[in-house]
Design brief:
Number of helices: 3
Radius of gyration: 14 Å
Helix content: over 70%
Shape: elongated
Oligomer: single chain
Distance between the termini: 31 Å
Number of strands: 0
């Protein structure tokens, strides 16, 4: 499940990085935060109940979060091609 969420976070990071200079980017950042908090709570509650250690939960959270940063870096390199978006 964590791997699937990581893959899911990469395109969101790309869109966030590509639109960071517009008001769309700010709205997307807010939506990303509001989207990821409940998603993380659901994932880590189940992993905690399954008996994963705190260290493993921290490692999984890094694995889930890194694709957003990587995607934002790729999106920044691509840039916003269509200013109407």
């Amino acid at each position: 499940m964590a791997l699937i969420i990581s893959i899911h976070n990469l395109p969101m990071g790309i869109v966030l990085g590509a639109g960071d200079e517009s008001e769309f980017g700010i709205a997307l950042l807010r939506a990303l935060i509001l989207h990821n908090v409940p998603e993380g709570m659901i994932l880590f509650t189940l992993l905690f109940i399954a008996g994963f250690s705190t260290y493993m939960l921290f490692l999984i959270s890094i694995i889930v979060a890194v694709p957003v940063g990587l995607g934002a870096f790729i999106g920044e390199l691509i840039g916003m091609q269509n200013k109407l978006l």
